[in-house]
Design a protein that fits this description.
The chain has 2 domains: 1-25 and 126-150, no CATH class; 33-124, Vaccinia Virus protein VP39 (Rossmann fold, 3-Layer(aba) Sandwich). It is built from 6 helices and 2 strands, in the order αβαβαααα. The protein has helices at residues 54-64, 80-87, 101-108, 110-121, 130-138, 144-148, and strands at residues 70-73, 91-94.
Amino acid sequence: MSTCPKCYRDLKDYGGYKNKMNHQGVSMTDIWTDIPPVRHSKYKGRKDANELSIKLLDRVIEMSSVKGDVIFDPFGGSGTTYIVAELKDRKWEGIELGPTDDIITRFDNLSFEKNNLQRYRDKYNSLFSSKVKVKRIQNNLWTAESVRDK
C-alpha cells in the first residue's frame, strides 16, 4: 500500500473500510506502477537489449502458470524470462537470434538473480513493508493488525 515516505500516512483514502481490507495486501489492479523499466547498466544483462524487470516476469509467470509448466519466450533478449522461469521451477524454451553469451553469463550467476528476486518477493503479501509498519506503529497510524482486532 502506498504511503508517504516522510510521515508514513496513507496516500489513498479507503473510505472507512480498512477493517474489511485483505491483511495480506491490496488487490492487484490492471495498472502496475510499481515496476520501473530496467535502465541502469548495473542491472542489465545485455547493454543494447531492452531488458524486462525480473519483478515483472516474476509476477506474470506466477499468475499465469504453476510449477512444472512450460514457459515459451520467442524473443530471448537478455534471458530474463528464462532466468525467472528457472527460479520459479518452470520448464522453459526460447529463441534468440542475437548473441547468447549474456544469457549464459546470467545463468552462471543464478545466485545473484535469485537474491535479487527474493528482495522483491519479501515485500509481497503484506500491506506495508516491515520498515513502514514499524514507523506507522510509532506514529500511532493504523496497521492491518490494529483494524482487524477491533
